[in-house]
Amino acid sequence: MNFTLKIWRQKNVAAKGELIAYDVSGISPDSSFFEMLDTLNQKLIMTGGDPVAFDHDCREGICGTCSLYINGRPHGPVKGVTTCQLHMRSFVDGDTIHIEPWRAKAFPIIRDLVVDRSALDKIIQAGGYVSVNTGGVPDANTIPIPKEKSEAAMDAAACIGCGACVAACSNAAAMLFIGAKVSHLALLPQGRVEASKRVQKMVACVDTLGFGNCSNTYACEAECPKGISVVNIARMNREFIGAKLFSEKEKVVKVSF
Amino acid sequence: MTRLNARIPEGPVASKWSDYKSSCKLVNPSNKRKLDIIVVGTGLAGASAAASLGELGYKVKVFCYQDSPRRAHSIAAQGGINAAKNYPNDGDSAFRLFYDTIKGGDYRAREANVYRLAQVSNQIIDLCVAQGVPFAREYGGLLANRSFGGAQVSRTFYARGQTGQQLLLGAYSALSRQIALGNVTLFNRRDVLDTVLVDGKARGIITRNLVTGDIERHAAHAVVLASGGYGNVFFLSTNAMGSNVTPAWSAYKKGAMFANPCFTQIHPTCIPVHGDTQSKLTLMSESLRNDGRIWVPLKKKDVEKLRTQSIKPSDIPEEDRDYYLERRYPAFGNLVPRDVASRAAKERCDAGFGVGSTGVAVYLDFADAIKRKGHDTIDALYGNLFQMYEQIVAENPYETPMMIYPAVHYTMGGLWVDYELMTTIPGLFAIGECNFSDHGANRLGASALMQGLADGYFVLPYTIGNYLAAEIHTPRFDTGASEFTIAAQGVTDRLKKMKESAGKESVDSFHRRLGKIMWEYCGMARNDAGLTEALYQITELRHEYARGVRIPGGFDEYNPELEKACRVADFIELGELMVRDAQQRKESCGGHFREEYQTSEGEALRNDERFASVSAWEYKGREVAASLNREDLQFNEIKLSQRSYK
What we know:
The complex is a heterodimer. In chain A, about 35% of the residues lie in helices and about 10% in strands.
């Protein structure tokens, strides 16, 4: 198969970027999208060009590193897959394919198609955990959890943190990302203990990182490679309102030994 | 040759670890604050260690090459994690888990370490549940278990086909909490290119900031390597593209011994290779073997017809199919350990019975299971795996059998460590896949996750304390010390030299060539003549690489080709050591199959008299062959026998 690629090239965060056209030929329909880009890069290296930088690692759809905006859609045209699991058979021979990085204020460009998504780590650091230390926990089976709850928590926990939801959103909101983490933990008894504190801390954090707000377009759900549902955003909103209205104020108790 | 001492505590195997914990030295909380620890890698071992050490009050710096610690390749583990909980009441115990692991590793692992692993396995499950890891559950709300290759009990806990992901996210969340509390500092997008020794002790590392290209120095009282395995030496493997041996290799060159490098695991259920541009291989979880039946046609004429697509696999009647694992191993059937299943697939394909367009694949068929359990049950168990298969191969496994073939998946070898997980460099520890200790010559399914988390959560936090207790008077280091300057200069010079070679061939091209040599001569079957040939070819390749690799771009910028160039240079050197190791081990055991040493039935033939030992290699210089040392393995609890899965 042969393709014309229009790829966003940008030297670094400060430089001005532009779309540059490249031709690739002789691509097997069984090749993955990245194997097609590998072929282009090999050609560029051998002809003295500058290979295209893109983020990728596991190439099996689970690490969440890959982040290409292909023909105007995060992770390209096929629903429910990451860029690395996209195969060239999903395109038509002779197509022109536009390849851009995730675009969001919270994700500054590092080079070409590579962006900095540390903001997502910061959101988790704000509260995306259960505060238990290693050791001193009860036997695993002393916490029975209804299968349905556990499955719903797993549905939310399946988020791979790629940021496609942010890239898809016209407001560059991270609501699906935090909704998924808030839901995963709020659905489980282990996570309930800190649920109200967690949602408040995470929402407060997301507001400082340059993400936009949610206006319910559902683009995030449509483009999520793991099918994370917007129900998680609704659950987060419920948790948030509940926490703001009903949670008890934390008393600061001074302890002296 | 030195005989290495693993410093295993005295006493009965079942009480060694509790005795050790009661008698090891402790560090007072106010002193922990003054001690710095570097952790390299944020997979299950690294993230769990960094989080646990932070919780204890040490000052931790953690490094990963990925953009986020959550992306380390543990995330891709599918099947599950073993523990001796005996929740299903099927007779499991710590001893049985220990026994299965030693036997599965073909009697080439250290008893004391493996027993400890089995003992702490239950604590891992408790902790992960407390963290909110959504393991699969039964309708009564309690945890579900499934069986896995190489075991006759159901001891595997799982979270759909994404167990590694969920466990890693658990460890990542604990790590994130410690980062927020200021106990751990994260350095992402960093390659660790050298280990710094001061007065013979590990005191720091040299890193390259992958975004800016800066060469950075970091000092600490101890260094923990959790940098994973080296499967990418084969180019095509199930590892992530960035997985590399560089941190471990740099430690090897500074004096840490490298143990059993030739012990690599070829996983039986991977998606077959499609063509020359293939960049990596995808694993299909071993759990599929619980319900899938593996077969090839019994008659060559059916093989021909399948290749020309004049018949479909379902057209072949039952009596014309060869369910070769069930035929050869009636007791374990499709659930034999990975090394056995992989070799059996290779044997059938070599004999000309392979299927698919290349003839290098076998069927994994779910038709019977779907009939027996129903479509919905199979979907609930394996839905996401089926989906993944269909996405890659464009065939629906509910309708037509999957095609699979073995691929490089895991490396049992790694840095030699003693009972305390310390390498031969004082203060340098190695945990997870990066060390060699627990899996012998073959790892059982669902044991890697167990080992990574056991090391990080429950073993290292104790053993590192025993070392650091003597370091409380050592002040924080100045990275301006001459040892750091020399190491940093060394890294800079190496990069410059590599870049100066006005080469004609890309890094990937060299890497592919290395992979072909390794797969051909040091893969599923090895022999003396082939290994000699490999040694010659790799040496040639190494010289060619030094003269002829082409690296575009600059130093002081984001430059993935430069990153790869460092990694491949190390893989080439490692490949040489693997071949040497395979050549000296004149026996077959686990994943190491030497064609000269097999039983009349084609099974691995061990030589316990000569090789019931660990080979630990010591670096002697660039153009000098590494020297071989041994650690003798003592088996007091388990009688060595020919592994039988019949």
